[in-house]
Amino acid sequence: MQKVYLDNAATTRMHDEVFVAMQPYLTAIYGNPSSIHSFGREARKAVEEAREKTAAALGAEPREIIFTSGATEADNIAIRGVARALQNKGRHLITTAVEHHAVLDACKALEAEGFRVTLLPVDAYGMVSPRDVADAITDETILVSVMMANNEVGTIMPVAEIGQICRERGVIFHTDAVQAIGVLPVNVDELQVDLLSLSAHKFHGPKGVGALYVRKGTKLKVFSFGGAQERKLRPGTENVAGIVGLGRAIELATTDMEAKVSRIKAMRDKLMAGLLAIPDTRLNGHPEKRLPGNVNISVQYVEGESMILSLDLKGIAVSSGSACTSGSLDPSHVLMAMGLDHQTAHGSLRLTLSAYNREEEIDYVLSVMPGIVARLRAMSPVYAGKE
Ligand SMILES: *Cc1c(COP(=O)(O)O)cnc(C)c1O
Question: Which domains does the chain have, with CATH numbers?
Fold first, then answer.
């Protein structure tokens, strides 16, 4: 059976060259980067080269890059680190209703500790308004966190404008840029961000490694202890092979980006048009300001989970909402924040492409999808009532 992977917002296939770069650091080169002997120095050199590559990809300086276990940890270090460092200045944080749970739950935990959190609303396209950010900032505000692009509906946020506002008001600005690396230009100065999270496995790197950009001078209070690694912000022996993989992956992801993106976008547009040709479907997210590889649709009178399972039987991997919410019966917090009703939110399907997809795969999906929807609708009491 043909296998088609269209869940690249959840994770991506590792690039072969990334694997090649990592391999020596999983076998022959095994020194601890903190050791001062030659074994250690060899590992240290690899970590620092990866740091330089990561910094170069973001327009940052190497010492502003902290390697982490992924974006969840980077988001936590950023948000909780700023909150603890600046709590005597103020105890107010601003974020959006459509952030990844790493950001939302970190903020929720701070709320329980006495911080006040403003969750900004989004419009019907999942877009946050810079005006709302400006209006929400008070003398107590210490941090604004707005993602670069949404992982569920693909909406690209006006992060540079928000960065400008935060800078003018003297508020630290964090962005979760996980979904943007390799598909959008990400430059920390152009975006005017102070903190930025990324994760290697979202851009064809290994799982379990990420990075946090920390603009020099940004105060973070640590909450993990035990070593001096990563400027004490993330103590513990470095994931050397993973870090090497991240460095190679970000280098590859940001090379020839425009050509890759236009190929992905062409396939995405074909997929999107084909799916929206099915009656009683709608697009979720912004029609233009969206990630090039993202399609998110709602199919009326059908459950997203049923479509996932039917597509899986045909070898096609997609998701509804984010991987974290799959398996729970709650509709996606992103779709709810966009004002969708429960039924429409439950009928949502997310298909996310990468450079590894081929046009034949899109044709295959489009050849099976109408039949799946028709069969599921035929079994739906809601749909029967409509006829
Ligand atoms: C995947 C994802 C994360 C979490 O990254 P991990 O490295 O898997 O912890 C955070 N934010 C966004 C927007 C994501 O898509």
Answer: 4-12+257-386 (3.90.1150.10), 16-253 (3.40.640.10)
